[in-house]
Amino acid sequence: MPDKKEPIVFFRDLTEPGNVNIFATLKDAKDLVAKNKKSYLRLVLTDPYGKNLSVQIWSNNEIYAPVNMFMRKNLLHLNGPIHLIDLSFDGEYVGSNMKTKIDAIPTQHQIYEKYVNLNNYRLLKTIPEDPKLLGEISKLLKTKPLIEAILAKLKDEGVAITEELFWEVIKLICDKTYTGTIHLISGNPQLEVTPQYTSYVLKQLEILMIAFEKNIANERIAPIILLRRLQKDLVSLYDFTEFQSKKE
Q1: Rounded to the nearest 5°, which phi and psi values hold at 8?
Q2: Residues 64, 96: contact at Cβ < 8 Å?
Q3: pLDDT tens, 95-147?
Q4: What is the pTM of this model?
Q5: What is the rounded CA–CA span in Å between residue 155 and residue 245?
Q6: Which of 21, 84, 196, 204 has CB atoms 3.0–4.6 Å from 7's, for a disulfide?
Q7: How far apart are alpha carbons 213 and 154 in whole angstroms?
Q8: Antiparallel, parallel or unpaired: β 39-46 and 52-58
Q9: Under the phi-then-psi rule, with left for phi > 0, alpha for psi from -120 to 50, and beta for the rest, what region is 125?
């Protein structure tokens, strides 16, 4: 789990019980009453992946108020930012405790600029004009050796490398090796193709080529179908790297 002082932006980072800070989009807020007649607010928050999280603000907390008053007092509006401090996470549910507070001016927080960029990308796929981020995206050019290796494998099987086939291979590798704009906005680098990933991709290709062995060089559509099938079966570079790091 991230440093307790830094607010969680991605809900998948909620992995261990404890006190957490959360910076997210306020999707909904409702007045509710629990079975024990205790009033509470249910806030529905959204993260940059569009994943929702329910947070209960109990009536014994100083920030609790009926929805309309809660929204006005804290200058909140639906689909705007919210920064909640010192929430309790029990491993399944998130709720307030006696120390829970709310940042009345989340736009002043240092994470706000990243939040805006992430939110804009979630809603409109807007890529920030950030030189560092754009530099990471341009690293996709380094996938050229993997593209050439796939084309060479196909050529060895007698497949004519048409322009159509050439673009299919480029699309496949670009789709599978791009780390993801959300990760780049978050400050993570564009992952580079490793020898292990190259071996994995080529092995997957070889296995599928066996299925198309009799037709791959003679049927014009066979190589295209093979690549489309590979697109379905191939794990992305990001997921492959995550899996490898967990093994280690």
Answers
A1: -75, 130
A2: yes
A3: 999 999 999 899 999 999 999 999 999 999 999 999 999 999 999 999 999 99
A4: 0.84
A5: 34
A6: 21
A7: 11
A8: antiparallel
A9: left
